[in-house]
Amino acid sequence: MLIQIDDLSTSDIRSLLAFHVADLQQKSPSESCYVLDITSLQKPEVTVYAARDNDQLLGCAALKELSPTTGEIKSMRTAPEHLRKGVARTLLQHLIIQARERKYEKLYLETGVDEAFSQARTLYLKSGFEYCGPYGGYVARGPNCFMKFEL
């Protein structure tokens, strides 16, 4: 598996991210759905990484800079045909390494609280994330789960 910065120009990653947005909008109430669309993922403060095996897209994840000392994980998604193969765990570890290289002190994320998000929460907890309150302008106004990782 090779993980590299992606410019979001290929159809496979654009399709995966469109699926990601549609899936989260279906699972989350609009007032608590903070998924980023392609345009938002192309902003300078966001770096998107793609995991590939040869030319096959396995998954993606983004690291958003909130401040010079804090980052946020966004758009973690494994391609459906590659679930349960360690793609998400590998992408998460890559983001943690990138955050350390950027000298971040904390890494945050927001996810859902219902059963559809339970495997993601388990992955984050096993990786050292802890529950926390809203951060970076988020407001707890729905079924959201906020987590942080002390670097």
UniProtKB/TrEMBL annotation:
Keywords: Acyltransferase, Transferase. Gene3D superfamilies: 3.40.630.30. The keyword Kinase does not apply. GO terms for molecular function: acyltransferase activity, transferring groups other than amino-acyl groups. This is GNAT family N-acetyltransferase. It comes from Penicillium malachiteum. It comes from the Eukaryota. Signal peptide: none annotated. Residues 3-151 form the N-acetyltransferase domain. The keyword Acyltransferase applies. Pfam families: Acetyltransf_1. CDD domains: NAT_SF.
